[in-house]
Amino acid sequence: MDLPNAPNITDWLQAVGTIGAVILAFVFYFWDRIEKWWNKPILDIAINFRPPYCHGFRWNRENIGRTVLQVRCYWFRMTVSNSGKEAARNVEVVINNVRRKVGDVWEQVGEFLPSNLAWTHISQQYMPLLLPCTQKEVDLGRIIDPATRLEFEGESIPGVNWSPTLTLFRFELTVNPVTGYNILRPGEYEFTLTVGAENCRPVTRSFVLNLSGDWEIDEAQMFGKGVRIYRSG
Fold first, then answer.
1. Which of 3, 61, 120, 160 is most exposed by smallest CB count within 10 Å?
2. What is the distance in angstroms between the CA of the first residue and the CA of the last residue of the chain?
3. What is the pTM of this model?
4. Which of 205, 207, 203, 202 has its CA nearest to residue 191?
5. What pLDDT band is residue 231 in, cutting at 50, 70 and 90?
6. What one-character-per-residue DSSP string does 200-233 give?
7. pLDDT digit string (tens) for 140-195?
8. Prior bond of 52 cis (ω within 30°)
C-alpha cells in the first residue's frame, strides 16, 4: 500500500499562513472591543479617614429663621479613583444596603432607600469625567454640634426628640428626604457603596460606621472615640 506523502515545508508554510490570516481577521474584526476592554476605566472607592478628606471646621450656615450662625461640624468624604487608561464618563455613587448591628445580628434599616451621594464642591449626582490616574471626592455625610442641631432643617428625624448632647450622622444625598431616612442614630452600621459609569463595570465596596453618640470639639478626640469609618472586612 502506498503511504501518503508527508507534508513538505511548503505545505507547512501554507498552513501557518492560513492560520495567521484567520487570527489577523479575528483581531481586525474585534479590535475595537479588544481596545475598549484593554483601556477601560477601572474604578474604586475608599475612605481616607483623616484631614482633609474627613475633618472638623466651623460652618457659617443659615438657620430656620434665616439668620446666619456659625456651627461646629465634622465632614466626611469618600475618594473615587480611576486607575484605568480611559476616562470614566458620568460617574455616580449609590449608597444602599444600610444595616445596623443589634447584639450580634446585622439588621436591615428598612426605611433606607438606595440613594446617590453628592460629588464634593459641585453637589451633583454625576461627575461628567474622571480622567485616568486621577481621583475625586464624593461627600459621604456630616455630624453637626448636637447643641445647635434644632436650629437647622434636615438635621433630625422628624417627630423624634433627640437629646441635644447626642450626635447623629447625616448621609449627604443628592436629595434631602423629608422622612429623614438618611439620618443615623448612635450605633454600629454597615453600608454598601457602588460606584459606576456609563463606560465601565460598577464596583461595590462595604464600609462600617461606628457612631458613639458623643460630641468632641477636639478633632483627634472625635475621630478617636466619637466616630469611626473603615472598610468592612
1. 3
2. 72
3. 0.82
4. 207
5. very high
6. EEEEEEEEEEEE-S---SSHHHIIIIIEEEEE--
7. 999 999 999 888 888 888 888 888 899 999 999 999 898 999 999 999 999 999 99
8. yes
Q: Which three cell numbers stand for residue 144?
A: 453637626
User: pLDDT tens-digit profile of 145-160?
Assistant: 999 988 888 888 888 8
Q: C-alpha cell of 82?
A: 480611576
| CA dist list (Å): 65 to 61, 79, 163, 224 | 11, 35, 21, 34
Amino acid letter, residue 179: T
Pick the CATH number of 41-231 from 3.60.10.10, 3.30.365.10, 2.40.40.20, 2.60.40.10: 2.60.40.10
Q: Where do we find the cell 456609563?
A: 198
Confidence of residue 24 (pLDDT cuts 50, 70, 90): low
